[in-house]
C-alpha cells in the first residue's frame, strides 16, 4: 500500500486488451474528414490559389485557403501563460499561411464526406508561388538577408549570451551570430565543433484531433499534453473567449513532448463553426507527422575548456546555434536550457563564457522533445570531458569527479541550491558493476593486438532539472471526492502519457489517506470543463509538482475525514488515526471505516450533523527546483572495416531521489535508454539540399531501434532525499535519454582512439573517420572493380 511499492499500472489492463480509447477511436462515424494542402516549396509566398476544380469533387463540403483565415498570429507551445513579457511564448503561427517557410507548410484545407473525396480535392487545387532559395542551416539563414518572419529580420529567434565570473555572478550581454570557433572573442577559448541532428519523436499515435459544437461550446478532442494551455491557444487563434472552448484529452499513444504543441486544433474548430457544429476530424499521416509536427532541435555546438596541472577546469566556454525550423514553438527556451546546463554540471574555477542563438530555417519546426536540449549539449559536454581526459592522461571517471557539481551547488542562473546529489554514488556503483578499471585495461590489451575488432568501455553523466521554476510558473491543482463506498476519486489535469503518473498519484493518495490503491480511481481522461487546472505534462515535473498537489489535497481530505469521524464517534480528532481505510482510536481500537464515515456524512438526516459529501481541492505552487543525476556505462564492440557498432551492455544508474514505484521507474529507464541508442546510432532526418523536402519521412527509411537492436540494460537507483519534493522524489521521465549518445561515442573512442563529433554514429560516418585516422585504407576504384 502507498508509495515505494511496484503496484501495477492503473491503465495496464485497458491498454493491453485494447479497451483504452484513443482520439481516433472516438471520432464519430459520420464525422467529416479534414485534410491540409502542403506547400511544394520550402521558402516563398503563395501568390494565388485556384480551388474551382476542387469544389467540383463530389463530397467536398468546405474549403479554406490562406487568404480566407484570420490574419493574426498565435503561439503553439504548451507552456502556461507568462505575465512576464521576457518569458512569453513566441506567437508567429497562422492557421494557414501565405508566407511559406518550409516544404510542407499548410496553405489550404479541405473538408469532405470521405477521405477519398478530401484527397481528390487537394490534388485538384492549383497554387502559384513566388519562390525563394531554401535556407536550411542557421548560417545560411542569417547571412541570406531574407527574413522568414518580419519580427526577426536577421532570422534569429532569440539569443542568450553571458559571462560568469569567479564568484559565480552572471553578466548578460548581447552577442552576435557567429560560426567562429573562438567563443566570446577569446583566443584561449577556441572550441571544438559538434553537430547533433534533428530527431523525430516517433510516437505510435499520429497527430490527430476532432472538433464539434455542443450547445454554445466548441468541443475539441485532442491527445494534447497540456489541455488548459491548448484551450487558451485555440482561443487566441480563433479570437473567441476560452469559456466557449472545451478541450477533452483521451488516452495518449505516446508523445515525448511533441503533443505539448498545438497543431490542427484551431483549423478543426474553425471548420465546425463554419459548418453548423458538424464534427470535423484531422488525422495526420505518418509522413505528415514527421514533417508537420515538431522535431528535436538540431544544433551546432562549439565547446572549449582549459585544464590546470591538478586536473581542474579553469576556463570554459560554449557557443550553441539551434535550428528552430520554420516557426517559434518553444522559442529560445530549449537552447537556453542547453547552454546553461554546460556550466551547471561542470562549473569552472575562472572565466566562463556562454553564447547561444536560435535561428529560423526552412526546415520543420523544432520543439520540445524528451530531454529539452540537454541530450544535445550533453553530447558535446561529455565527449569533451573524455577528450580532455585523454589529452591530459587522466581517467575519465576521476576527471569528472574532480570537476562536477557537488551538494549545495548554487545554480548561477536560477539561484537555487542543489539540496540532494547522488551523482558520485551513481558513478561509483556503475564502475563497480562494469568493473571499470580492470575491463578498460583488458580492452586496451585486446585492442593492441586486434586490428579489425575493437572493444570499448565508455561512460557519460548528466544533471537535469525537475520542472521549470523560476523561469515559469509551476502550479498544479487536484480534486478528490470520497465516494459512499469508501473509495476515492481523483481528478487532475496532469496528463498521463504512458509514464505512469496516474498510478503514482493513486499511490500518493493511498499513502496519505490509507485507502488501498484498488479503491483509488484516477480520472485519466482530462476535460477542461471538469478537470482542475494544471500546467501539463512536460519537464519531468508531474510527480514533483502535480504529485505535491495530490499529496496536499489528500492531507486536506484526511483531516476532513478525521474531523467528521470525531463528530460521529464523539471523540477528539487528535486521538483518531487512519489505518488501511479504518478509523482507529487512541488505544488502536477500530471505531469504524472510511466507508462508514462517507455514508453517514452523505446520507444521515439528523439535526445534530449536517450532511456533507466529503471532498477536497487545492492548488500547489512549487517554489523550488531540484537536479536529478545519473551515469550510463556502455560496453561495446566496433567492427572497424565495416563501421558497425555492437552494444553488448548498458548500465544506467540514476539519482531520481526516492523511487515511488520501482517497476515503473525501471520501465522509464529502459525506454529512455532505447531512445538514446536510436539518437546515437541510426536516427537522422534527411532533406534534399536543393528543395528542403524530407527524404525519409516514414518508419521504413527513418531508422528507430527495434526489439532486436536493444542490448542488455541493467538499471539501478541511488536513492537520495529531495526535501522540496512531496516524498523526496525527483525527475525521471526524461533523464534516461540524455547520457546514452555520449557514452556510446566515448566507448568508440576508447575502442578505436578515434574521436567523432557528429551524430548519428552511422557506419558511413565511422568509416570516414577511421579512414582519416588511418585505421583502415580507402579502396581504390581499381580495387573495387577487381573485388
Word description of this protein:
This protein is of the alpha+beta class and 787 residues long. The protein folds into three domains: 25-132 and 208-283, Aldehyde Oxidoreductase, domain 3, CATH 3.90.1170.50; 373-468 and 625-773, Aldehyde Oxidoreductase, domain 4; 475-621, Aldehyde Oxidoreductase, domain 4 (2-Layer Sandwich). 29% of the residues lie in helices and 24% in strands. It has an eight-stranded mixed β-sheet, with helices on both faces. Helix 17 (662-681) packs across helix 18 (740-752). The chain starts with 11 loop residues before the first helix and ends with a helix.
How is the topology of this model organized?
Blueprint: H1 12-17, H2 23-26, E1 32-38, E2 44-50, H3 52-55, E3 60-65, E4 74-75, E5 91-93, E6 99-100, E7 106-112, H4 115-124, E8 126-131, H5 138-144, E9 156-164, E10 170-173, E11 192-196, E12 208-214, E13 217-221, H6 227-238, E14 245-249, H7 265-274, E15 280-283, H8 286-292, E16 299-307, E17 313-325, H9 333-345, E18 352-360, H10 374-391, H11 396-403, H12 423-434, H13 436-449, E19 453-465, E20 475-482, E21 488-492, H14 501-513, E22 520-523, E23 526-527, H15 542-568, E24 577-579, E25 582-584, E26 590-593, H16 594-603, E27 615-621, E28 627-639, E29 644-655, H17 662-681, E30 712-717, H18 740-752, H19 763-773, H20 781-786
Parallel strand pairs: 1-15, 13-14, 17-18, 21-22, 29-30
Antiparallel strand pairs: 1-7, 2-6, 2-8, 3-7, 4-5, 9-10, 9-18, 11-16, 12-13, 12-15, 14-23, 16-17, 19-28, 20-21, 20-27, 24-25, 25-26, 28-29
Helix pairs in contact: 6-7, 9-10, 10-18, 14-15, 15-16, 17-18
Amino acid at each position: 500500500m502507498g508509495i515505494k511499492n511496484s503496484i501495477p499500472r492503473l491503465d495496464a489492463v485497458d491498454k493491453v486488451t485494447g479497451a483504452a480509447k484513443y482520439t481516433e477511436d472516438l471520432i464519430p462515424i459520420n464525422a467529416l474528414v479534414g485534410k491540409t494542402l502542403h506547400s511544394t516549396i520550402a521558402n516563398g509566398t503563395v501568390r494565388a490559389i485556384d480551388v474551382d476544380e476542387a469544389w467540383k469533387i463530389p463530397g467536398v463540403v468546405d474549403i479554406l485557403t490562406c487568404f480566407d483565415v484570420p490574419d493574426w498570429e498565435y503561439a503553439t507551445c504548451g507552456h502556461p501563460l507568462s505575465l512576464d513579457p521576457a518569458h512569453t511564448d513566441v506567437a508567429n503561427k497562422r492557421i494557414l499561411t501565405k508566407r511559406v517557410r518550409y516544404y510542407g507548410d499548410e496553405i489550404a484545407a479541405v473538408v469532405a464526406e470521405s477521405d477519398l473525396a478530401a484527397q481528390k480535392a487537394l490534388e485538384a487545387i492549383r497554387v502559384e508561388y513566388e519562390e525563394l532559395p531554401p535556407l536550411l542551416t542557421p548560417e545560411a539563414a542569417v547571412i541570406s538577408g531574407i527574413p522568414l518572419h518580419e519580427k526577426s529580420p536577421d532570422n534569429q529567434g532569440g539569443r542568450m549570451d553571458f559571462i560568469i565570473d569567479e564568484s559565480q555572478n552572471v553578466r548578460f550581454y548581447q552577442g552576435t551570430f557567429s560560426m567562429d570557433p573562438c567563443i566570446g572573442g577569446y583566443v584561449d577559448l577556441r572550441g571544438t565543433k559538434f553537430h547533433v541532428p534533428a530527431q523525430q519523436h516517433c510516437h505510435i499515435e499520429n497527430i490527430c484531433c476532432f472538433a464539434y459544437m455542443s450547445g454554445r461550446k466548441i468541443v475539441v478532442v485532442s491527445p494534447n499534453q497540456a489541455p488548459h494551455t491548448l484551450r487558451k491557444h485555440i482561443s487566441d487563434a480563433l479570437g473567441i473567449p476560452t469559456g466557449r472552448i472545451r478541450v477533452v484529452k483521451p488516452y495518449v499513444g505516446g508523445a515525448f513532448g511533441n503533443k505539448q504543441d498545438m497543431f490542427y486544433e484551431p483549423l478543426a474548430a474553425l471548420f465546425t463553426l463554419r459548418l453548423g457544429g458538424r464534427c470535423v476530424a484531422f488525422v495526420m499521416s505518418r509522413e505528415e507527422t514527421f514533417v508537420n509536427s515538431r522535431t528535436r532541435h538540431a544544433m551546432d555546438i562549439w565547446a572549449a575548456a582549459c585544464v590546470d596541472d591538478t586536473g581542474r577546469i579553469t576556463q570554459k566556454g560554449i557557443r550553441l546555434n539551434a535550428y528552430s525550423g520554420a516557426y517559434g514553438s518553444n522559442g529560445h527556451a530549449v537552447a537556453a536550457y542547453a547552454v546553461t546546463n554546460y556550466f551547471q554540471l561542470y562549473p569552472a574555477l575562472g572565466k566562463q563564457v556562454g553564447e547561444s542563438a536560435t535561428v529560423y530555417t526552412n526546415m520543420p519546426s523544432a520543439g520540445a522533445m524528451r530531454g529539452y536540449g540537454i541530450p544535445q549539449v550533453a553530447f558535446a559536454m561529455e565527449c569533451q570531458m573524455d577528450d580532455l581526459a585523454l589529452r591530459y592522461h587522466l581517467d575519465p571517471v576521476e576527471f569528472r569527479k574532480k570537476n562536477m557539481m557537488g551538494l549545495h551547488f548554487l545554480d548561477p542562473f536560477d539561484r537555487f541550491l542543489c539540496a540532494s546529489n547522488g551523482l558520485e554514488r551513481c558513478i561509483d556503483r556503475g564502475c563497480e558493476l562494469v568493473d571499470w578499471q580492470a575491463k578498460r585495461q583488458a580492452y586496451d590489451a585486446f585492442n593492441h593486438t586486434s586490428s579489425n575488432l575493437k572493444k570499448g568501455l565508455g561512460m557519460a553523466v548528466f544533471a537535469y532539472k525537475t520542472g521549470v521554476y523560476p523561469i515559469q510558473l509551476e502550479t498544479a491543482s487536484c480534486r478528490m471526492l470520497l465516494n459512499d463506498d469508501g473509495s476515492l476519486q481523483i481528478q487532475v489535469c496532469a496528463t498521463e502519457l504512458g509514464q505512469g503518473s496516474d498510478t503514482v498519484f493513486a499511490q500518493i493518495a493511498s499513502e496519505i489517506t490509507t485507502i488501498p490503491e484498488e479503491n483509488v480511481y484516477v480520472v485519466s481522461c482530462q476535460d477542461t470543463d471538469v478537470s482542475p487546472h494544471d500546467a501539463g505534462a512536460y519537464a519531468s515535473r508531474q510527480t514533483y509538482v502535480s504529485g505535491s498537489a495530490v499529496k496536499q489535497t489528500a492531507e486536506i481530505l484526511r483531516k476532513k475525514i478525521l474531523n467528521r469521524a470525531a463528530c460521529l464517534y464523539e471523540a477528539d480528532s487528535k486521538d483518531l488515526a487512519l489505518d488501511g481505510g479504518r478509523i482507529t482510536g487512541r488505544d488502536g481500537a477500530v471505531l469504524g471505516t472510511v466507508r462508514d464515515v462517507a455514508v453517514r456524512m452523505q446520507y444521515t438526516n439528523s439535526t445534530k450533523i449536517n450532511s456533507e459529501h466529503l471532498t477536497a481541492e487545492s492548488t500547489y505552487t512549487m517554489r523550488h527546483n531540484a537536479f536529478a543525476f545519473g551515469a550510463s556505462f556502455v560496453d561495446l564492440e566496433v567492427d572497424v572495416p565495416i563501421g558497425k557498432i555492437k552494444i553488448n551492455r548498458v548500465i544506467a544508474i540514476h539519482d531520481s531521489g526516492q523511487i515511488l514505484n520501482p517497476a515503473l521507474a525501471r520501465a522509464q529507464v529502459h525506454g529512455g535508454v532505447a531512445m538514446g541508442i536510436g539518437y546515437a546510432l541510426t536516427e537522422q532526418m534527411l532533406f534534399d539540399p536543393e528543395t528542403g523536402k524530407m527524404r525519409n519521412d516514414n518508419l521504413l527509411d527513418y531508422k528507430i531501434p527495434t526489439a532486436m537492436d536493444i542490448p542488455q540494460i541493467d538499471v539501478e537507483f541511488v536513492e537520495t532525499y529531495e526535501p522540496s519534493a512531496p516524498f523526496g522524489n525527483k525527475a525521471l521521465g526524461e533523464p534516461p535519454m540524455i547520457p546514452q549518445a555520449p557514452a556510446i561515442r566515448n566507448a568508440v573512442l576508447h575502442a578505436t582512439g578515434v574521436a567523432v563529433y557528429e551524430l548519428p554514429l552511422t557506419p558511413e560516418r565511422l568509416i570516414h573517420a577511421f579512414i582519416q585516422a588511418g585505421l583502415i585504407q580507402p579502396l581504390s576504384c581499381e580495387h573495387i572493380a577487381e573485388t
